[in-house]
Amino acid sequence: MSLLRRHPRAELLLAAERRLDAAARRRLDAHLTGCQRCRAELAAIETAAAALRRDTVAAAPADLRARLVAAARTEGAGRRRPFAAGPRLAWAGGALVALAAAIAVALVPARVRVVQAEAGETPFERQALAAHSALRGEQPALALANGDAAAIRAWLREQGGLSASLVTRRPAAESARYRLLGADAVGDAERPVAAIAARIDGTAVTLLVGRERDVEGIPAWGWFAKRLLVRRDGASGIHRLSWRNAGKAYTLVTDPGVRPEAACQLCHVDERRRRAIAKVAEQL
Amino acid sequence: MPPFPPSTSAGASGDAIEERELLARLRAGDPEALGELYDRHGARVLAVAARIDRDSAEDVAHEVFLKLWRHGARFGGRARLATWLYRLTVNAALDHHRQRRVRAAAGLDSLGETSASPFDDGDAARLDLAAALAELPARLRWPVMLRFYGGFDYGEIARALGCREGTVASRLSRALARLGERLGASARGGRA
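Above: the input entities. Below: the structure tokens describing the complete assembly.
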């Protein structure tokens, strides 16, 4: 006899998703034994779910991407600006945003947690250090000797889909301080890794990027915060910062003289992020 | 391998932060940020558009991403960018589909003819699935598309559609049951 008095539609979906716990699954199985209708419905749900899983998403065409970026470039600054509402509404919206931001700043803890580490350097960090040594000279040999952030990002995509949020436009006061030199491939076809060479106030900085699945020992995200692994060589003063993000693993190597938080700004100019970086820097 | 698309909420905070950066760059007028947002969402936008109107999927995606470029700052970050993009996609795809039906009715176009499309791989099972999805009423089709092609979790679908999570589960269940019955019938018909 069925242990469930009704037809358990919600449980059928959970069963198809394999999210029922053992006890609930036993109750459902007992119901299914005596209910042809639910057996048929579960079979149908599983058939549909399997078909949908097989219906993989095709890759987005690259030529459409190129057309979009070209169109955006053509429209440029002439595009319409957002929030065409009247001044009163804009003011009210601004006040609400400010209030929300104030509450967020007051309540939300720093979203990056620093993990200090002294020993147990990972192969990826060693690779970053080696790449940094090779690229810190006057005229490093680079596969892509182009300091344009967009060109580097495009080149990274060709290296097994790597990515880095390098800043394209920087406030004028800073643009002379930050200089991208280009990028070099330091992995292989099976395990693509790229090193991005930069200078901050003339001092060498190297950002290594690989696919998360190829890299071990870099801490994963915590519940509420990105974990940032930090090492500093007492003798050389060289910092290494490692983290994961969006399927990629990164290690940033900075020569003495460059504060790691300044190097973080290779990728971040957003004011809120800068405040977060400054907060993290206090822990470095 | 997870049986369903992995939840996008767990571990997605990094993506969300990076997305905010991309939106900040977009607002600052960096066209390459649009390219990067396309890299993130293009395939799924195309997939959703193709499930509504296969022939116009690329046009729809083009339109949606240009809207993102022109009006991206209107997206206030209250919901995921993906939710906003998929709403735009559905509206644009339905518009295209309606226009094509009107043109077909006027004898200017044929709904039966399909242009070359990245989705037109001649796979009968896939076409069956597309047809079965198209037959579902919108209130049932949407949760399926957002769950399987958009990778949304129940909470995100509920927020996107303005209903409760329980309603999402119930609609998903009914939608999948109908789809499964339809696909089973097609398979039996195909074998006969």
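Note for the figure: The helical segments of chain B are 13-27, 31-52, 57-71, 81-105, 124-135, 138-148, 154-161, 165-191.
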